[in-house]
Amino acid sequence: MLAGAVDAALQHDLAVAAGGGDGRASGFGPAALLPLLPVRLDAGCAARMVVSLLGFRGKPWVLAIDRTNWDFGKTTINILMVSVEWRGVGIPLIWALLSKAGNSSTAERIDLLGRLKRLFPDMKIAQLTGDREFIGNAWMAHLAREKIPFTLRLRENQYVGRDGYATWPLERYAQGLKRGEKRTLPGLWRLGASDVRVRIVMMRWLPISITYRWL
Predict the structure, then answer these.
(1) Long-range interactions of 74-83: CB distance < 8 A, separation 24+
(2) For 97-112, what is each residue's pLDDT tens digit?
(3) Does one domain contain both 179 and 210?
(4) Residue ranges of the Transposase IS4-like domain (predicted)?
């Protein structure tokens, strides 16, 4: 659909350039129009087209940050990406090719979100979701400073602590939790030595996750 819209717009521009301002080519038939040239859209242009076509303007966005990597011959391809949720599907908005294998760094994540914010300065983030890779003190502290609500998956062996309570792995607090049951730990908790306080929600049939919301 995007490619069709671009081709139609470019075709009209070529017709105007060849003749009258009404889109007709003066003295030339349709066969005389210049052939369509390949169009290369940068990431910012593509993201604005997606947001416009899917009607995200003025609405709160549910974003997902993710990373995927694979080997193409002897070349490692490692992509960090932010997508927006639309009807249960993640639509990529912006991405970065990492010049290394393995996990992304806090600086790379902050830079990617910064690029997205510069493209959409009025963007309202309802929630940012992420996998276990995106647990990190500096990263979560940045999201808290920017007042970005986030939900991240946790490992069962993740140590959590609370003022006045001993520090234990999450699996200890999940004891007795039956398949399909949900348990929310009371109050706010720290992950390891992190200073960021989060709410913890556990489900036996799903990976444990944390939720951080500004109330």
Answers:
(1) 76/100, 76/101, 78/102, 80/104, 80/108, 80/109, 80/112, 82/112, 82/113, 82/116
(2) 998 888 999 999 999 9
(3) yes
(4) 58-172
